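Hi everyone, sorry if this is the wrong subforum. Our group has a chain we'd like a structural model of before ordering constructs, and none of us has done structure prediction before. Sequence below.
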Amino acid sequence: MKKTMIVCAALLVLAACKKEEKEVDTTVMETETVTDTVVREVPPPPPTVEETDGTSVSVNADGVSVDSKDGSNKTTVNVSKDNAEVDIKK
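Answer:
Right subforum, don't worry. Here is the predicted structure as tokens:
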């Protein structure tokens, strides 16, 4: 009796695990192409600098530049690897 129950259970398991064939869909699907638009923002131009009274110092890989203005008097000093200049305007 136990053997027949085991055999019936095994047959039931095999029947439940039967491989089912699935129907393959052979229709062709249309694809949509989407193009991305790249928008680049152009930065605004740098503001124009009006020369006012005062002193400005610039340091870069080439050297140092110092500009000083007081009313109508202007002094410019440029020091670089190659040369040095001093310009005084009154």
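For your construct planning: The CA atoms of residues 39 and 65 lie 39 Å apart. The radius of gyration is 43 Å.
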